[in-house]
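Worked example 2:
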Amino acid sequence: MWEGWITVCEASENLRNLLPMAVREHDERTKAAEEGKENEVQAEAGREGNQEKGKRNGEPGSEQVETMDDDFAASSTPPFLTESLEMAMEVENGNSKLSCFSCAFDNQNVGRSFSAESYLASGSLKRVLLRLDPSPNDYEDDVVEMFGFQWVTEMALVESCEFLFGLLRQQIYRLEDLVQMGSSDFGQATNLHSEAESIRRQCIEFLHYVKVFIFRYLEPPKLENDGMLHPYEELEAQLPSMLVEELYALTMHIGRLCELPSSVLAAFTIQHQAKVFPPSWHLLHLHLDIHWLVLEILHVVGEKMMRQVVYANHFINLTGENLTSISLFETHCGNLISDLISLSINKYIKVRPSEALTSHHYPCTCIKELWILLIQLLDHRSKGSHTECFWSLVNKTLKNIFERPSSSERTPGFETVQCKDPLSFSWWIITHLASLYQFDRNGNLNEKKQKESNWKFVEELLKKSTDAQSGVLEEHLRMHLQCCLTLCGFWDLNLSTVSILWDYYSKNLNSCFTVPWLGLKGLANISKTSLAMLELAKSCCCEQQIPTLYESSNSYFIFLNILARLMKEEAENGGVHPWKQIKGRIYSKFHRRRMQEMTEVGLQNFFNLFLMLAIVAETEDIVSRVLDLLDFLTPSSMTVSQRALIWRGHFAFLLIYVEKNMDISVLAERLSNAFREKAKEFLVTKNDYTQRQNLWTLLSTYIDGVQEVFEISCYLSLSEEKLLNDGFTMLLPACRGAELSMVLNFLQVVLARLRSVHRRLGQGLRLGHTAQDAQLPLAAKEHHLAVASALWRNFFPYLKSQRMSQTPPSPQLADTAAGFTLLALDIPSKALSELQPQPVISMMQLFGWDDMVWPQLVSRYLSHLIQNSALCEAFSSMGYTSYEALTVRSWFRCILQMFIDQPTGTLAKTDAERTVGKAYMEQLTEMTRLIFKLPEVENILSKAHVEESVFKQDPKNALVQFIKAVGRTYSGLQTLPEKSAMVAKTLEYLGDVLKYVKPYLKAKGPPEGLQLTYWIIGCLVKFWAPILATSKAQQLLFRIVDCLLLPHSVLQQDKELPVALLSAIQESLPLYLQGLSFICCQSQTQGAYLNQLLGSIIQQYFGRFLASSPTVLGAGQHPMVSALCSSITAPQMLRLRKTTLHVINENYMQFKGNAPPPRLASVLAFILEVLQRTQSVELCDIDLILAVVLKCLVLVNEPQVKKISTDIVQYMVEGCQAGSGGERATQLTSVFRQFIQDYTAVYDQRVFSVLEAAAVLDQTLVTSLIPTITQALKDSEHKQGLGRNAALRQTYKRLLSFLAEAGQNEIQKLENETGSQCAGD
């Protein structure tokens, strides 16, 4: 039967060869019909034409009113009237371009979801649904052109329906032929595009004409009066039936959408930005147009026929099968939905579960538009009649996938479709289709629009997803629940979905819900802190990016999201809170056995559930029930990690209490009591490492939890002090290393949080806030006092006991002590009684100014407080003026003791020791920067004109610069009171400085410590010499000399000093000598004693640092050379030079008989170096040194001694020319005269040799000595008793020959004496 009908339809294709004849026949029929009409028929046709014109011009005709009334009958939605009027008003400005599917890029479509030509955006769908003229601006002329022929607009479809549809099929054939050509001929792409586009346009124009003709000219069925009808009326009466047959034939001709060749379906993938499209693209979109316009035409026919059933009489008579307008609409609609789902299945095959929500189900926007058109049309029709809605048809189609019927019953179109996972596909397609309900009839997004739900079908899907027998994997279950959560955002929530899911998850709480291929992201997430647990639960209660949940959460958390959304939305909408309806189902799943069977993962899931519920529902009721359920667990059956998780869960509930501003005392006491017991166990457990680790796991959980409570509590007015019980007094002494560090860090956070909140509330009270704003701070104040009291009582005693520990304390100890100091400043009344009445000063004395406290602790402690303005104001208000001086003293000590904890040996430091040293150096640098900001210090630096770059220097150098600045400032003072006050202040800066360095001296190391000690204190002696010269400071000076320079070990000559100590003294000795020499010049009462001290120091160290043999000039320089050659004042230099040479003369240049002293060459080299570097000869040099040097020239034969001695004589002779007539020249002559008298008799030749050298240097000097030399010559001859010594006289004459006239005269005199003596003889 079906084959016969198809044969009849295909026979019409022979018309392609009979077009000219058809046109002539058409003209004849038209003419006969016009002539045969009666006048009344003509008048009636005229009235209908006028009425349609009135409707197109917006006049409220009777037909329009009837349409509106019918529309109201179909739907109770009032806006239809408004929309109808709007559409009528838009007629004049309407777009005459006919609607069609188009996904081509259009620059005018910016911001739109669909093309302006689309059925949605153009208003085509809306006009059809509102029973308005489908194309009010089109087909208004008497003649219309279709398929290249002219037709009478108002009669063409009645007279030539079969013929026109034949032409339509012929055009479709032409387009199919172009597709075949286009696949092989790329050179004609543009021409093919134009021709294909023209063909498609003709087809669409015809179908739109059909729709318009039905609306304008098709009359509803009339009751027959006389049984006689005009031939045209007979044709017109048969038109609805003929249209049904032709539309059916058209659908059979084009076939199913999913059955199109793959080459045509591939056109979906063409980029929308293209300008030229292949024929396949046009053919594909023409199919879409035809499928949709068939539905529109059938709908318009039904509306025009008063929703009466139109039978395809000819088809029924021929085939015996029933074909009506309604059955054709339903069949075609069902087939179209099946085809669209088939296309979606092909697209779903390539979709990963993780990408399900971001991967659309439509290959192009035209398919998306077609889905929306079906939704709008089907749901519109279902409102006015009992026809199936959109979801009903979709559900039927999806059920076919699940049921997989036999080949005889299989739904057409699914023979080639294979869906491997129909359940996941159903979730995917339902979710994406639900999102399309957000589009209105114009294609605009309208998220507030009421959306039809499909919960019944979704509930069936949920049951299949959670059915244990189905074995749905987690990777798919996550996607299913993502879809469910998305649907919850589209539809009103229902309780059944939550019940189905809870039945599943309550049985699988111990599951990890992991996806293996996700790696670490898929692992079960055990929260490490209570805050993390709470944040996880809170994330379920807030809007999230659902597509990201696949990797960030497991299916259980997505279920919690669904449950939380149900709670929140239902509660916001009023009525009975959903918690009251569901809590019985949730509670009933937990009992003793279920609780005891829970693993750690199960407990985590348990807490996640109830934390989320506590956030959105009755907090106290839920927490109370959770505590009762946890009581079912026995401690012996739980692991340590489970116990820690339970403690974290408790704290997470505490955090909820805090966020909701609820008192936590009951829950806090329960937790703190458990903490006290574990802290007691921890204290007595010392050697059992495993037990300690287990206990610390719980204790650290408690500490983290308390810290989080304090951090998020807004006013600390909810009994937070209950958490700070005496368990900490047992915990702190038992902590080691990292454990103690964690507790102290926690304590710092609590101290800072308390001070911050207390200060903020105090400011609020001072600003005079009233009413409700003021009540809370007043109530919170008592809680703050309680927290402060708990901190002082349970933490501070341990802190105090650790300040003088045997090993350097951790930095956190200093930080915490600073926190307690500031707490004493803010809340002084709650400090311990031993710190009263001024707890701030007591704290500073304990941790900042006590000389026995570790310097590492002091430096870090003071760095927190030096620049605290409130603390400075407090000291000022107390009248405590020594605050800055004591702080500077501590700074002195911290720098001097920076190496106090290093080993005394010379072994290489470990990396850990280097790290500690570096950290302490950074701390000292920061402390130095802060110290230099103190007003007192700034004043000193400004008076001394010290640049700011000093602040950035190494702390040791900065300290030296400060010492220099103090010295310069003192030197600039004029009055005695100012100087006296300055001396007192500097002594206060120093304190007992020798006490600071005593550990170095006692241990004789480390080398760095000794070098630092001698250098810094040497700088004090040198630059504070004017201060140390005063009576107030001399005792300190004497102690410095006794302890550092002349200790008992130094006085023991037979005992060698340690190398490190000797090296430190050698580097710094010039500072001490220069300072002491200045003091010797200044002191009036202790001058003799100071000179003695200076001499003793020189005596002890000259020989220790003297080389065994002379060295090259400048290499291995003696420290006393540096002292003598520095730029110091003349009196100071002379005092030091005289004392040094006196010591050298007395102790290092005394001959034992004719035997020279040891290391004579080195001593002489020292003297020579001093003369060379100073480039001056002083009187003391001649008095103390010259005679001995001349003696060396006579008595010592060592070449090196002779060479150095000659150089010394040369420097002295040249330095004080005899001809200058000065005191030094006179003294020089005197020394030479004595030298001649002492040694000429025995060492005449050597004496004359020395004098010859001197004559070369200073002729005047030797000339003045002629009488002395002559007399010495005569005395020598007399003593020998041998008469004149001719050889000696000859040597003397040679000397005299260098002395010009005076020498010649003396020679003459000697010769005369010789001649007279010979004559006498």
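The two ends are 189 Å apart (CA to CA). The beta strands are 143-146, 149-152.
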